[in-house]
């Protein structure tokens, strides 16, 4: 399909070339949903509600078919298609309570998008730093440990 980023459905791994490819295939499971951009537009009511901005683009609120809330991250820039593919692959394999779950992605040209479960109560940065409620040291340690656990899982998945 020519209008795709070169990431046909269920074959993201084909992006990964040469020696890299073998590493990714070995661990890949890809049980994520592939959205068309039209589906994403329906999900987000045409990108009507922004949740925030990140360094790679905007995040929008959406509702998918089973009525669950999602965060739709639309990349305004990707450094390379391979990097986007790798990010999708890594996210699709992480299954950890401290890592937001990837539900799906869109690989249409000009619409590199990842769809995540919606996380309520704001970001980690907003909570200890932006709230008036004091966050005591034991809670801060607990947050730090949980972040480290999540990071460990992600690093374990990344190929060396
Ligand atoms: N899963 C989510 N659920 C709810 N809100 C989210 C979710 N993901 C992102 N957001 C909102 O969108 C904002 C931007 O998120 P995004 O992940 O793009 O940026 P970031 O956290 O700065 O990371 P990056 O380095 O990838 O740009 C967040 O600050 C948050 O307010």
UniProtKB/TrEMBL annotation:
GO terms for molecular function: ATP binding; protein serine/threonine kinase activity. One of its GO terms (biological process) is cell surface receptor signaling pathway. Keywords: ATP-binding, Nucleotide-binding. GO terms for cellular component: plasma membrane. This is Protein kinase domain-containing protein. ATP binds at residue 73. Residues 45-160 form the Protein kinase domain. The lineage of its organism: Eukaryota, Viridiplantae, Streptophyta, Embryophyta, Tracheophyta. SUPFAM superfamilies: Protein kinase-like (PK-like). It comes from the Eukaryota.
């Amino acid at each position: 399909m020519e209008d795709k980023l070169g990431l046909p459905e269920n074959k993201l791994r084909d992006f990964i070339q040469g020696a890299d490819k073998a590493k990714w295939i070995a661990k890949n499971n890809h049980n994520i949903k592939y959205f068309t951009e039209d589906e994403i537009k329906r999900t987000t009511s045409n990108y009507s509600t922004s949740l925030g901005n990140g360094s790679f683009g905007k995040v929008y609120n959406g509702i998918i078919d089973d009525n669950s809330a999602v965060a739709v991250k639309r990349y305004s820039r990707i450094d390379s298609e391979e990097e986007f593919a790798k990010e999708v692959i890594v996210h699709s394999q992480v299954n950890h309570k401290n890592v937001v779950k990837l539900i799906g992605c869109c690989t249409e040209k000009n619409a590199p998008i990842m769809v995540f479960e919606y996380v309520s109560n704001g970001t980690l940065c907003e909570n200890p730093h932006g709230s008036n409620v004091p966050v005591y040291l034991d809670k801060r340690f607990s947050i730090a440990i949980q972040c480290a656990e999540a990071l460990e899982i992600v690093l374990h998945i990344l190929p060396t």
